[in-house]
């Protein structure tokens, strides 16, 4: 029989966990056996996380005044809470997701609060599928190693592009200058033809004029 003292102790423990946690996931635990719960808790201890099963009324009471109170407002059914204490590591949630897959989906994410953001069930499940902190750090390190060669490649391509652009500009200038020269020659020839036509017209008029008496 659960006594009033037991309930007080449970609330006090949960309050401390809510206070110290950087992220919290709520889950439905659907008929986990004692051995399964012990196995899951052992795996989570390796990540410095806790998996607590308690009545919804006690969880809600313990969450009051914490950053996770909005997560517990609509709790129903058999609930277990995952407390994560390293805000850069989602590996505890990934461990729960893997455990659920191996155990007939007996643990289902209800929601989460991560970095101050309230997540619904689908979002919490997506976060649980992210790479661990160690994997992310390894990926970042790999990117940093490749940056110098990538930057060198980019600058080389840009220099080639600049050379091509310079060549095109020079060719355009040459073509444009030739066009200007051709235009100038055409205008000169046109003016010469016009002047010649005017002279011919004047000669014609002079030959047709009647001599004055």
Instruction: Give me the CATH fold name of the largest domain.
Output: Alpha-Beta Plaits
Helix content: 55-70%
Structural class per helix/strand content? alpha+beta
CATH architecture of the largest domain: 2-Layer Sandwich
Within the largest sheet, what's the order of strands? 2-3-1-4-5
The radius of gyration over CA amounts to 42 Å
**In percent, how much strand structure appears in the residues?**
5-15%
CATH level 1 name of the largest domain: Alpha Beta
Q: Low-confidence segments, ≥5 residues, pLDDT <50?
A: none
C-alpha end-to-end distance: 152 Å
Order of helical and strand elements? HEHEHEHEEHH
Q: How many domains, in number, for the residues?
A: 2
Name given to the CATH homologous superfamily of the largest domain? Ribosomal protein L10, N-terminal RNA-binding domain
Q: Count of helical segments? A: 6
User: What is the total tally of β strands?
Assistant: 5
Q: Determine the mean pLDDT.
A: 79
Report the major sheet.
5 strands, antiparallel
Task: Using the alpha-carbon principal axes, give the shape.
Answer: elongated
